[in-house]
Design brief:
Elements: H1 2-19, E1 22-30, E2 33-34, E3 40-43, E4 46-64, E5 67-71, E6 76-80, E7 88-91, E8 97-104, H2 108-111, E9 127-128, E10 133-143, E11 152-158, E12 168-176, E13 179-185, H3 186-192, E14 200-201, H4 206-212, H5 215-218, E15 219-223
Parallel strand pairs: 1-13, 11-14
Antiparallel strand pairs: 1-2, 1-7, 3-4, 4-5, 4-6, 4-8, 4-10, 8-12, 9-10, 10-11, 13-15
């Protein structure tokens, strides 16, 4: 009997503590549906297939009525559209917030710090070894109206020096307490950027800045 009450007490404590966390889900979407790898979508009269999507979220902060209530315990999150485990951010504290801010990309200091580990390890394919810099956002796929060989496009967006500085701040409002969803509308990016004209971006450039400037427009937030 004593063992039963002891176990029950531990369970209650565990369940209570499980609620004292903040959860964010990052969900890549195409129109109203969750983005699916290698699925063929339609943009107007053209077809589009996404084969790779990764991006960095850094300096994540939580606000309540414009007052900072908490910061993420991790410097950088690598979101992989096709690895579900990477799409959930769990903070060990409960934040009552109605706004979040984060950077999409890696800051200058981190870029010049050399090779790092964890989410910033070059093994993840988000580092230009030839240029010693991080790729903030990587999107690859096949588009009918892309004039490149086999209609393949590559958008590797990075750059930590002017005039090609590509990190962008994202600010999202919501009404949440301990959980919310962040949507990234990939379809909207293709209405803002013409893949028939901009299709091979693999180094800091005017084109990479043009794409980076659209990032604040394609992130949305809703309460769970």
């Amino acid at each position: 009997m004593r063992f039963f009450f002891s176990s029950l007490g531990l369970l209650i404590v565990f369940l209570a503590n499980a609620q004292d966390v903040t959860k964010l889900k990052i969900i890549p979407k195409f129109k109203t549906d969750k983005l699916v790898l290698h699925k063929t979508y339609c943009i107007g009269k053209d077809s589009l297939t996404i084969t790779n999507l990764k991006f960095y979220i850094t300096d994540l902060q939580y606000f309540k009525n414009d007052s900072l209530v908490g910061s993420s315990s991790k410097k950088a999150y690598l979101i992989d559209a096709f690895e579900t485990i990477s799409q959930e951010i769990i903070e060990s504290k409960l934040f009552d917030f109605n706004k979040i801010k984060f950077k999409l990309g890696i800051d200058s200091l981190t870029n010049v710090a050399g090779v790092l580990d964890g989410n910033l390890d070059p093994i993840h394919g988000m580092y230009w070894t030839w240029q010693s810099g991080y790729i903030n956002f990587k999107l690859e796929g096949i588009a009918d109206n892309c004039p490149a060989r086999n209609h393949k496009f590559y958008w590797h967006i990075g750059g930590y020096l002017e005039p090609f500085y590509a990190m962008r701040e994202i600010e999202l409002n919501c009404n949440a307490r301990n959980s919310a969803e962040i949507f990234i509308q990939i379809d909207q990016l293709f209405t803002l950027i013409d893949v028939s004209k901009i299709y091979q971006v693999m180094s800091p450039s005017e084109k990479s800045v043009q794409i980076a400037n659209q990032f604040p427009e394609i992130f949305k937030m809703t309460q769970e």
